[in-house]
Design a protein that fits this description.
single chain, mainly alpha, Actin-binding Protein, T-fimbrin, domain 1, 2 domains, actin binding, CH_dom_sf
């Protein structure tokens, strides 16, 4: 019982939202609640470097000091979107990614992002491929060549799995 209490105390220190979950939920094995807590902890860890202290290069995303303050007040996930869209604009990609589901399902944004970050590993035919599943597979091959471990499959990309796509982009950010 004491270890379960500790398991609930630690996430609170990490600012994990623990609504409607308590010691009894762990004892009774309510998977969806326990997995929700674990998912939040993983997300916090994946996004931990999205700040100026750990990643001073983020300053390139903004113009002046006022914008820097504004950027740093944003949630880490929003900073990740800002970084991704900044990279995509370098490539001339016209769409804006605002979510890790619908906006990345066609795997085009990933192809452009990976080509900006590691053109030496790019496959020129990736964007010519009409089949989104095949394009997603090529994107994952490109990411592998960059040293990015995969958290998802090509099917996860085209299905628009938001948590797995967020993990993938966060990992790309860490390996850029």
């Amino acid at each position: 019982m004491r270890i379960i209490h500790y398991a609930l105390t630690l996430p609170r220190k990490l600012d994990v939202l623990l609504s409607n979950i308590g010691t009894q939920d762990f004892i009774e094995g309510r998977r969806h609640l326990v997995l929700g807590v674990i998912s939040q902890i993983i997300k916090i860890q994946l996004l931990a470097d999205l700040n100026l202290k750990n990643t001073p290069q983020l300053v390139e995303l903004v113009g002046d000091s006022k914008d820097v303050e504004e950027l740093m007040s944003l949630p880490p996930e929003t900073i990740l979107f800002t970084w991704m869209n900044f990279q995509l604009k370098k490539r001339g990609y016209s769409k804006t990614v605002t979510n890790f589901s619908y906006d990345v399902k066609d795997a085009e944004a990933y192809a452009h992002l990976l080509n900006v970050l590691a053109p030496e590993h790019s496959n020129p035919s990736t964007l010519k491929v009409k089949d989104t599943l095949e394009r997603a597979k090529l994107d994952l091959e490109h990411a592998d060549k960059m040293g990015c471990k995969r958290y998802l499959t090509a099917k996860d990309i085209v299905d628009g799995s938001p948590n797995l796509n967020l993990a993938f982009v966060a990992h790309i950010f860490q390996h850029r």
